[in-house]
Records
---
Amino acid sequence: MRYTSTRDSSVDVIFEEALINGYSKDGGLYVPSVLPFIDHETLRSWIHLSYSSLASTVLRLFISREEICDHDLDEICTAAFSKCFNDSDIEPIPIRKVGSVNIAELFHGPTFCFKDFGLRCLIFFLSYFSTRRNRKLILLVSTTGDTGPAAVNAVSEAANPRISILAHYPDGQISTFQRKQMTTIQSPHVSIASFEGGGDDMDEPIKQMLNISSTSSEQQTLCGINSYNIGRPLAQMIHFIWIYLRYMEAINPHLEHDLETLDFILPTGAMGNIAGGYMAKKMGIPIGYLCACVNVNDITHRVIETGQFHKSPTMIKTLSEAINIQIPYNFERILFYLTHQDSAQVKIWMDQMSQTMEIDLDSMWHVKLCTDFRSSRVTDKEMCETIKDFYLQHNYFADPHTAVALKGAEILGYFGNDSSQDNVHSIILATASPCKFQEAVTAALGHEVWESYFEYKLPARAKAIYLTEEVEPHHYRNNSKELYERQSDWMKQALEIIKKF
């Protein structure tokens, strides 16, 4: 399997190079040259596989044996997922019936969020390659809440002295718990830095650092691990397949009858998760609509509703901070597969985006987008009301992002009084545990409910993080008014931290 760029079909690299580069040299995102097709008989044959076995089986389709042999691939997937779940007596991704909706809980991993599935896999791959090449990798990441903790935890667990990480977060725009998940890890291979700005303002400095990393020593390489890295959506497509198999097995034992489609409803930020689902659909997994539920930072909703992919002038602070995104970079992969891999058309769009911060899809492409995707926009008030309703009616605690998806599902008619979705199979992805979001849960349910939850239901590991003293993160100085000037300063300060690894 080779990898190409969303913007240039002549790009041709191996899996290792695609992972370590992050971005293609033309500024595009790496994608597999070909998406393998999974017929229904093959899908049925996967029904009894464990999660790690399913992962190695699916990923085998995207990685040549010359790069990683079967034994090593199995070992990587076992290492990434065997310790990925808090309790050995539950399914890796429990599916719960809550009222009239089905909820797949992806937060039973070590950092209580779905990012554990994608990031652990990616980082264990990078650890494998760094050891084989005897090359030092310095991982760069910017987080709006969950990516940073999952990445830092995976680097710490990999315990590879050749891998270090510098994780960034926007000051005051992630939860206390998410920050402490990063700042309570003491390791010479982990550094944390905050910056004053929007959730994706650090993306451009990181991209520039990755572009200049070729001037570094061949024995030290910078590597970006946000969801522009192809390793993330590749790993995340696995949980779409796993959930599909578990759901269909429940209603159709042994998958003996014709396979039906399943709609997925999920909170959406940078679109890495939904891009993984779209790739799985393009491979033949019977996925119906992919429903993107967003907060008031709603560029994804606007493009699906109107065809206008326009960056908003400001980032609005919300209680669902992890999906506070102004430009979701994985929309580029969505466009690539939407156009049947027309990299020339994608390049035209992305050049336009770079110049104007706007893309306008014509009616043909907009209609095509709406055949695969639906969307909804949810305010903080609606999100808090949803947390309260599910707690009072079903004794179910939802984190703010899952609540965005729950309310979004209601808006789209998947439950409640609207019968427009009768006989449609659907499932909501719960992407994080409420234990990470004291501020949002308290805003929705009050201090007394949070205190009771903290005392009696909070996982012991989560409670320990709340009670652990933090290591002071780096705070990037902010002496310039213009964003591009601040970003230049942030890059310089980041490079100084990197020198100390």
---
Amino acid sequence: MRIVITGMGIVSPIGVGINAFWNSLLNGAYGIKPLSSPFLTNKFQYTQGGEINDELFMHPLKKIDKAASYMLAAAQEAFLHAKLTPSPFFPQEDIGIVLGTNFGNQTALESLMETDKGSPSTNKAIKQNISFEGCTNLIAKELGCGGPKSTLSLSCSSGAAVIAYAAFLIRMGIAPCFIAGGYDIISKFSWAGLSALKTMTTDKLRPFDKQRNGTIFSEGAAAVIIEELEHAIRRGASILAEVLGCSMNNNAFHMTAPDKNGEGMANAMQMALNDANLPPEKIEHINSHGTGTKHNDLAETLAIKQVFGKHAYNIPINSIKSMTGHMMGAAGTVEAIATILSIINGWIPPTINYEQKDPECDLDYVPNKARQQRIKVAISNSAGIGGNNSSIILGVYE
């Protein structure tokens, strides 16, 4: 069974909408700025992040959680991009939903925790929004999706895992079409937890650079429409790319630290190659997890060398986190979209802020400037706390 991507949508710190996002990637836009909340900048050591400019973003509905509004906007764009219109030929139950998130609907949770004269909020709308299923339920209702729905929380691999999971469900015949996406926002609760990890930097985010000393977190959402090929053809969809293979695993190693040899990520890439029935030499580009932390970037580099051998030195590798920041639950979907856009347009966005080569990270990381290159097959990697890994192999539809 062949599975394809027919629509995409995004809300990111470097652009709302696919066109704005892609232009920013090619131009090396840096989406990290001082945080706008006085509470966050006064209470925490780390005071920069990738926030969405709400002056440019119109919330599609009132009285819904901020995170859910971003996810809904991304899903709406993907839905329109794919020209999805339920009909007697294409009933609502044909469209399922798989969403991923680290923290869920944080503004609703924080509103619930606020007290009035010592009593928690009794607002029913707030209580309905705090469920991790709340965002999935909202999109099902607003877009008329009557198929199966799931919500995954696999840390920062969530946004890629939803694509893999949706592909597996399509292969099983559960439904022919899914909205798959990830979302998260910067909030008091999430920032407290992220700060406690001590993986952030007060410098710039510098993936694979010798001077790298941490990541920077961002908010946003992204969605893709993934469907069975024959179903897409029958309804006259424009096919953007093909999902050739995918994988999900975990390191079974440590709650936060990566396996120093990168074996978990290496296994994920190899599983995706096996799933696609492709030799390593067919991969022409890697959109890396590339967080900018010392251990993660080294572990991913070692994993790439383990899987690709000498060919690793021929593969252009980038980290768009150098521009978007680490978008948490949205990151994997965002990076899959960037990979698809590279395949469509023949350009690889750069890894910006790359100034000093690291002798241990010695591959081609496409430093600082976008590179024109025809790509037929590429892989997008994601990893997360708990040792979660996911790899998606995407290719030109032929």
---
Amino acid sequence: MARVMSKSSVLTLVRTYWPSWRRSASDAHALDAWMRGEQYDVTDDPEHWAFGRPYSPRDTEEEYDDLGRRTPTPWAGLVVTSLAQTAYVDGVRMPGKTENMKVWNTWQRNRWDAKQGPVHRAAIGHGLAYGLVLPGVDPLSGEKMAKMMARSAKKMSAWYASDDDEWAQVAIEAEPYKDDKGNKGWNVTVYDDTAIHYVTCKLDGGSDSDWEYISYETHPLRVTPVARLANRIDLDGRATGEIEPYIPMLRRIDQDTFDRLIVQRFGAWKIRYIAGMAKPSDAAKANMQAMKLKVEDLLISTNADTKFGTLDSTPLDGFIKASDADLRMLSAITQTPPHHLLGLSSNLQAESLAAAESGLQRKSTDFKMNAGEFHEQMFRMVATIENIPDEAKAFDMQVRWRDTESRSMTQAADALGKMAVQLKVPLEMLWEKLPGWTDGDTERAKELAESGELDALMQALAGTDPNAGNAATPAQQTGDSGADSGA
């Protein structure tokens, strides 16, 4: 077994990586604000690339500030959600097998059917997310089991010796705290290939005296028990999410909205004017003349030289078209279906809907390639902790993804029927391709097929009786041939 790092080595390591962790966490918080439509509050540093406030002609007026706060819209969150909703794990199998692997039970016990959505959203939005696997205990039964946990880039960062490495050298997780005296600091956890180290940090960790080593505990894995999920990662190790590259465009869309709100508030009405009126003879008449007019007030003057007129309102069409044009561009560069962003009619034919979402499905395939490797890493760590050696070494396991493409049931049934008849593909393989069909549905169908109940069910739905040829009709049962019994 590898030797556990000394206290001084751990403190040196965490102080070295702490500035990098702070930058990564700060960037993730800024991107998270864009996901939640709170980009207006990203104001700590106006020069930051994620700065979210639209430009205002007047920074000091309360009315302009109020319009600015009505401007942010979570378009980034919609881009992230559109992709995340195409990626759901439905099982994990070995090639050629029809049953899920044993580690799938641990996935279910850890409620990862529900957790996978937040993990995928975090990776898509922030660029990175992390999974953590450690020994644990089932809270109900008390049985030993692997605990699968998820961490966002707001809390965790990992560092690798090489961009090609599968396992991290070290990972750091940190949570802020505030004690009873109001002192602030960080509870820091350091993961390496032998142990989990617990450290505390006072203030911002800028001084060596701010750090204190608390304790450690070993783990049974021979690697750092952290898996990294990257939305996109290049050969230089740079992970990019679905928000950061498009922030300039998202800011432009928010500016479009802000400009339209300014026009709606200050330039959307015609302005009536009067010129050439006689100068009031005293202060009282001047005050009366200066009174603000109501919308329904009528302007009257006894002076023949007085001129009346109106100043036209500013049309909003151009502002609305500018916003639509930017949304169409956002749709194109993010491969998000235009009807998701523009609110177009959803009454589309299945073929048209599939064509509109083809770009999103291609992007989804790219994401699933990275996410599949992440989940397989998690499963191998689970198998190692739960002592399932054949699955811990199953490098050819395959994560099964739910089919989320937009296809009508008629199209799917027609295509699958032709595959069964013309290509002689076994029905059991085709059941899994049905839209919305789950593993539970497949198992139920197999049980019905093996018991013979499936044939009886299909015949019942078709309105036929499998024993119709041997059964007597009601007339035969009563002896009535249709003629008068007395004839």
---
Amino acid sequence: MEFQERTTGSLLTLFEQGNRPVLLLGAGCSIRSGILSTDAFVERAAAWEYARQHGFSTEDLRIRRSDWYPWLKSQKWFDESKSNAENYPKVVEQLLQPRIARKEFFTKILNPCIEPRVGYRTLAKLIGSRVFDTILTTNFDDLVERTCSDTASVHHLDVIRHSDQYLNISTVPTFAQLIFLRGDVCA
């Protein structure tokens, strides 16, 4: 497929002809609303587990990077030559166990009191106008869902969080669909 540069007008024409883009949301939207980046998630997870394994409260503000980072580097599975983001899957797999610990961590980190920024409100309006029928996200938070539920023009949003729900994905959805590519981290 050849790449063609499109103007805003030509894209609008494509949308008006019934073409529906698929939107891929990454961390940028959530970071602006106050959700941690992947790098920051890794650091918080490492500090969290360091505290648990060393008998400290996970809320102990005295724990510093100089405490937990040497411990993290000593883990056989941790690859210091990779970025935190690249180590993220292993950190979740190795540190946030058992599942109840992972749920506790993410429930605390994905603060439900965070208010979606203006970008999420604009996105909800676009979803309500059916500009986007399919939204793929690598994010974990519920900011899209919450914003859509507060937007009158969004009558329904199909949320697909787990691999066992992937059969519900449609190429011609009746309602907008939000598909979590990483699944539900709290499950």
